Amino acid sequence: MKVATVAENGIAFEAGHIEDIRLASTKMTGADRRAFQAQMALKYCGGNPRRAEDVFGWGRQAVQVGLHEKRSGIVCLGHHRFCCGAKLWEEKHPEVARALWEIAQSHSQQDPTFRTTLSFTRLTAEQAIKQLRGQGFAEDVLPSRSCMSEVLNRNGYRLRPVLKAKPQKKSQKPTPSSPISNNMSALAKAKPSCA
């Protein structure tokens, strides 16, 4: 097996160990990855980002940022996290969302089998929008019908009709294999016909 060494610290790695550390690093993202890379750089590379780049193949800027985060205790968040991506409708309009949850809660019931924690509701997206309009919310804060159904589904309200309990039949139809049916066929054979 191939052995790689880090000369200054005198630490010897097998090639598999380096691959395992690289793999572990690829499974993480953002601040978690940088913290892991900084920890490994401190442990095996003497805190040197260039050496960590040579040994593990990581970008030295990411390792350097991770070392600074570890030293200062302040985690750097990217500009992307704050400025990019559409916010959820519930986050944009929390007061309308609270009114929607009250409406949905009043129309929902528990799963009859109690297998899930989801609430099933008879409320459709169109009805929810109509009721929110009736409460006086403006059109520009109300979502479209498809968006409303996504909002309700995302928050645990399944949009499917709830079936009422069906009454059981009072009597069963006799089948050819049932004992009552066998007796009836024997009686029918024994009775003379009127023809």
Beta strands, count: 5
Mean pLDDT: 78
Largest sheet: 3 strands, mixed
Q: Order of helices and strands, N to C?
A: EEHHHHHHHEEHHEH
Radius of gyration: 34 Å
Sheet-strand content, in percent, reads 5-15%
Residues in helices, as a percent range:
40-55%
- Tally the structural domains: 2
Label the structural class. mainly alpha
Shape: elongated
Give the N-to-C terminal Cα separation: 99 Å
* Strands side by side in the biggest sheet: 3-4-5
Number of helices: 10
Low-confidence stretches: none
Question: What would you say this structure looks like, in words?
Answer:
The longest helix is centred in the first third of the chain and has 15 residues, at 30-44. This protein has helices at 15-26, 30-44, 49-56, 60-72, 79-83, 89-92, 94-106, 125-134, 145-154, 179-190, and strands at 3-6, 11-14, 108-110, 119-121, 157-159. By secondary structure, the protein is mainly alpha-helical. The strands form two sheets. A three-stranded mixed β-sheet has the order 3-4-5. The protein folds into two domains: 3-79, no CATH class; 89-159, no CATH class. The protein is elongated and about 85 Å long. The chain contains ten helices and five strands; from the N terminus they run ββαααααααββααβα.
